[in-house]
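stuck on whats below:

***
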Amino acid sequence: MSPTVDDLRNEIRRAVGRYERVESTAFTKEALAAICDAVDADIETNHLPPKSEMRAAIRRRIDLEDGVDPDAVEGPFRKAELESLAASLRNE
């Protein structure tokens, strides 16, 4: 049985030193910043940029489908993106 989106989010949170969440929630700005740091995504370091910018930076660092522009994709990560992100964090 494949992991759920919540399971993947919590695996990613654990991998970057953040706390697991019992309820289903998207990543906080702080969690996204920790993920950016873990995958060496370029973000502004003197203040936290908007979530959309951090998600785009993370998407640029993980494998997306060919022809997908990370800056044009809006909203939370899809399950396939979470699977790629979790796999990349496992390999580090």
Summary: The chain has a mean pLDDT of 86. The chain has one domain: 5-90.
